[in-house]
Design goal:
By secondary structure, the protein is α/β, with parallel strands linked by helices. 41% of the residues lie in helices and 25% in strands. The strands form four sheets. Strands 3, 4, 5, 6, 11, 12 and 13 form a seven-stranded mixed beta sheet that branches. It has a two-stranded antiparallel ribbon with strand order 1-2. It has a two-stranded parallel sheet with strand order 7-10.
């Protein structure tokens, strides 16, 4: 009895929609596929598939078991790839897409270390805040800042960040310090135009979720430009903590309304597929996980 083969065969039948398709995918005879599935159902004591002359469909038990099978099979595949990758040299071209500000602030200082550690790897790094199509545009890996990673891609979390509301002391001395989100409508706002919620800023405060529509005096698709204007006392910004922490520590900017927290984001390495991740890409992901563990 080979439990793994039974699970693999059953999953192939479901994926292919028929015993014939599963036989082709597994390079196995149709009777062998039928036998493995029948033995699996007999061992479990439940029917996993409803069979008719026209189609196959999963039973309720079959749907549950199929999900478990896919997880187990994927884990086994990843384990094998990890072992295999240890015996293969880390070398070759890696095409990476990164967000502009995070790429400059946090990632740029890391590339020399990675290059030293893996001298046979060639890096091709592209900066863009738009959502690139990894497969269509030929990227091996992208770093993305998002609330949730795109479900069509495989992701690994690298770090976290949050949006921080802040302004310069001189601006606040002249215009006053807002105490609640509703007061932001009376303030000059320096807006990041690619923010998913646009001019609606959301906060989680003592009384629950609060939203306010702001009135920007400047819009830009670059967060560094927003921060530069804020340092020159031109208004209020809502920017990631990794970008403003230094200014907050130096006193150039002051955090506003700390009781009202804005959006928290995950920072993810995303790649097209879990299958056959190359040693060079896996090495880069592992490197970034360790290098960015303290980013906030």
């Amino acid at each position: 009895m080979d439990k793994f083969l039974e699970m693999k065969t059953f999953a192939a039948v479901v994926d292919g929609g028929s015993f014939v398709q599963a036989a082709d995918a597994l390079d196995m005879s149709k009777p062998a596929v039928s036998r493995h599935v029948a033995e699996l159902e007999q061992r479990l004591g439940v029917r996993l598939l409803q069979r008719t002359t026209r189609k196959l469909s999963l039973t309720e038990e079959g749907r549950l078991f199929y999900g478990r099978c896919k997880t187990v099979l994927a884990d086994v595949e990843v384990a094998e790839e990890e072992i295999t990758s240890q015996s293969i040299a880390v070398k070759g071209l890696i095409r990476v897409n990164v967000p502009v500000s995070f790429g400059l602030w946090e990632l740029a200082p890391l590339w020399p270390e990675f290059m030293t550690k893996f001298p046979d790897v060639e890096l091709d790094i592209t900066f863009a805040d738009r959502m690139v199509d990894l497969v269509e545009e030929g990227y091996d890996l992208a770093v993305r800042i998002a609330r949730l990673p795109n479900s069509s891609l495989v992701s690994r979390k690298l770090a976290s960040t949050r949006l921080v509301l802040c302004a310069s002391p001189a601006y606040l001395k002249k215009h006053g310090k807002p105490k609640t989100p509703s007061e932001l409508s009376d303030h000059a706002v320096l807006s990041y135009s690619l923010l998913a919620t646009g001019d609606q800023w959301n906060f989680d405060g003592p009384g629950g979720n609060v939203s306010v529509t702001v009135k920007p005096v400047m819009r830009t698709n670059n967060g560094d430009t927003c921060i530069a204007a804020a340092r020159q006392h031109k208004g209020v910004v809502l920017q990631p903590s990794f970008m403003v922490n230094g200014d907050l520590q130096s006193g150039a900017l002051v955090e506003l309304m700390p009781a009202y927290r804005s959006t928290e984001f995950g920072i993810y390495a995303v790649y097209p597929t879990r299958q056959y991740v190359s040693p060079k890409v896996r090495a880069l992901i592992d490197f970034l996980v360790k290098a960015l563990k303290n980013v906030r």
